[in-house]
Each structure stands twice: as C-alpha cells, then as structure tokens.
Amino acid sequence: MRRTPTPMRRTPTPVRHTPTAVRRTPTALSALLLTLAALLLGTPTPAQATVAQTATAQTAAEAATAPLALEAAFPAPGNGWAKVERYLDTTPGFRTEQYPADGRGDQDGARRTYFGGTGQPSSSRFLLYSATGWDTGSRPTPVLLVHGANDNADRAWANPGESGTCGASTCPSTGLAQYLAGTGHRVFAIGFAHKQGDNLLQAQAVGDAVALIRARLGVPQVDVVAWSKGEVAARAYVSSVRPSWGRAYAGDVRRLITLGGPNGGLDYVYAHGWSFDLASWPACGGTANAPSPHLYMTCYGTYTAQPCLGVLPTGGYDCYPGQRQLLARWDGRYGVDGTAQDWWTTYYGGQGFYTSGQGIQAAIDAGSLIAPLQQAGVPASVRTYLLAGGSADIPGVLNENRGPSDGIVFTASALDTTGIATIGGTRLLTGLNHLELAWAPEAESQVDNWLA
C-alpha cells in the first residue's frame, strides 16, 4: 500500500545490516534516541503477571539459596568499580528476549565482554558491579543502584560522559557510585541483559542482586536507588508484581529512592511519535534504539513496515517490551502535541496520512504495569523517597513540554505517590533534567541525605 504525502496538519551472534535509506537522520533527532539510550524509559499481558502478598522476611542465608550461578568475574574493571560479576538465574521462565536484528539494541563496550562476548544475552543473566569500598564502607546498609532503559551501570552511575550524552554540555568523569562510596556507603549496581527489557524479568534480577549482597555482607536489608525505567523494575520487586513463575518480595529492602521514575507512567512515545519514527525507522534513515508507536510509515513514497520496532507486539516480534509497561495516558491533563504529523491517529489509533498504528490505549491494554503497581502498593515497611527534575532542557532532544517535566517524565508522574504506603520524602530539583538527576551534585547530596 502506498500513500502520497498530503500534509493537512503540521503536524547467540548479532546480525547486522546497513539501512537502505540514503537520507541521514537530522542530528537533533538522532540525539533524541541516543539520549533515550539513557532515558526511556515488552511484555507479558496483565493475565501473565500476578500480584502476590509480601512474603515473610527471609534471613540472608535463605536468600542465598536462589538458583544463581556465578559464571565469570572481572577484577579491576575501572570506572570506580572493584569488580564486575556475571550471574545466571536458572529459574525456568527466564528467556532470551528479542533484539532488533541490525544490532542497535546490542550490548556494547565493556558490557559485551562482561556478558561473555555476546551482544544479545539471555535475560536469565545479569551483571553485579561492586564499587571500591564495597567491603570496607562504614554505613550499615549497603546500596544497590538500578539503571534505566537503553543504558548500563557504567554510564548511569560511574562515568556519565561515556556515551557523550549526559544531559549537559560538559560531563563529569565520576557519578553517584563514587560519590556514595566516598561517604562511606557500600555500593553495588546491577546491569541488565536487555536494554529495553521486560520489567518483570528485570525485577526478578533485582531480587537476585539484593539476595547476593545480603549473603555476601551478612546484612538483613539493602537500600535501592532506581533511576528512570529502573524504578519500575525495582518497584515491581518490592510490590511482588511478578510473572506466575517468579519469586515474591523477600522483605529485604529498607529504603527505595526513585530518580525521575515514571511512578505515574508516561506517554512520551505516543505524544511525539513522528519524531521518534524519523529517528528510529530504518526506511527513513533512522538508527536510534527506541520504539515506534506505529505499525506502518511512508518513507520516500514507500509504505513500509518495521514490526520489531513497535511498542505493541506485532507479527511475532516484541523487541521493546519494557516500554509498553511504562505507559499511562496524560492527554486528559496535558493534551497531545497537535503540531506533530498524524498526531491524532498516532495517539488514538488509526490510519494517518503517513503512518498507521493502534494507539496508546491498545498498548496499555497489552501490558502496562503502572496501574498494577499502584494497585499492589509498596509495602509500608519500605520507606520510599521520590526525586524529580523540573528542567526540560536535555540537549539535542525533543523535550516534553506539554507540562512541567524533566524533559522526559512529567514532574507529576515522578512525584506520584499513589500506592506508596510510607513516604520518606519528596523533592523537586527545578534546575535538573532527566539525565542530570543521576549525577548532578545536588541530586547526589539529596540521595546521600535520604540514605542516612
């Protein structure tokens, strides 16, 4: 099917190939999803996820009985880490999630080595980073850092400028991991196998990491600091929102701190879908690792399909399951970007002039976790703190400007306390954007204060 553009509104080895389009994506649009490479925040349907009651707290010895196998260890890896270890969870139910065939979602850099030389590891594997001082720090409760989408523990917590995109014109060479270690905390971080993976699988990995830390240090609980999409995985763990085969919360988290977490969900992909398509759709020259709200798009006069890039599972493909789980509608509060091409059909579904899709509600119905998480609730025993940014100024990105935001997540979403039983504190840092929340001195100081 072909359409003539009629603008009415302004509206395991990885397989690699070179996009056939000859046009290059504009620099700003490329940066959009390169930044979503640390931002965005796949996926079982609600029927596949069950909400269980909080389990009786386990001892550290009991926690260590999870079916985990240490596969490899990497001493002195740099970036302020003392070591990195790769673990395998042998629980039936874990799987190798789907990756875009052109390699855009593959593990890269040091992480490829840590995962055994493969860019597309199974989600049954995860990395546990131990910061310098993990065995000597004076603070009694250790800290686990949980990174966000299209990111890794190195860039998120230890070297914000590694990818060249940190949310500011000048990037620091150290991050929250070194800061907390310097104030006496015993710091660890998790590294996920899939950059945009299923948050229910990643929640189980968070539970595994907490169990390993408890067993190693002989402590009853761990504090968890989660940024962006990582907040959903961390919250799913403590709320016992899990796959039918998954383990329930073990009562082993003392405090949960969220940094720019989409507690109330987000609709960024659907509200600004046209820009996402230009940056990611191969037939239009896009290469960014981010999902599309559309099933079809006209590129250079040809109507094309790219099912692996969809938020919704299509034609047997589901490469961005974690994105679907973050969705919630904000059109009733902040409207939709009416300047974008095909904005109505992008958000609400249908055939537009250049694109076709099913709309955000269909994607929410296919597996968003926001409502289930709020209904399950964070246990009263987990004191929770919410940090939000108020500066929508991420360089090179179409910043979310329909309402107050950090450039990606609405402030109201990041500070949404629905379902959280014990609020330890909330704070809005008006001068920080979504990326800066993970490394700016003001954010670091606040996290350290909440952990005290």
Describe this structure in words.
Helices cover 25% and strands 18% of the residues. It has 452 residues and is an alpha/beta fold. Helix 1 (27-35) crosses helix 9 and helix 6 crosses helix 7 (230-238). The longest helix is centred in the middle third of the chain and has 19 residues, at 199-217. The model is unreliable at 1-65 (pLDDT under 50).
Task: Summarize this entry quickly.
By secondary structure, the protein is of the alpha/beta class. Helix content is 25%, strand content 18%.
Overview features:
9-stranded mixed β-sheet, 452 residues, alpha/beta
Residue runs with pLDDT of under 50 for 5 or more positions: 1-65
Count of runs of 4 or more consecutive helical residues: 16
Q: Estimate the strand proportion.
A: 15-25%
Shape: globular
**Which sheet architecture does the biggest sheet show?**
9 strands, mixed
- Give the strand tally: 15
- Rg calculated over all Cα atoms: 21 Å
Helix percentage range: 25-40%
Q: Please tell me the overall pLDDT.
A: 87
| Biggest sheet strand line-up | 2-3-4-6-5-7-9-14-15
Q: How would you classify the helix and strand content by structural class?
A: alpha/beta
Q: Ends: how far apart?
A: 61 Å
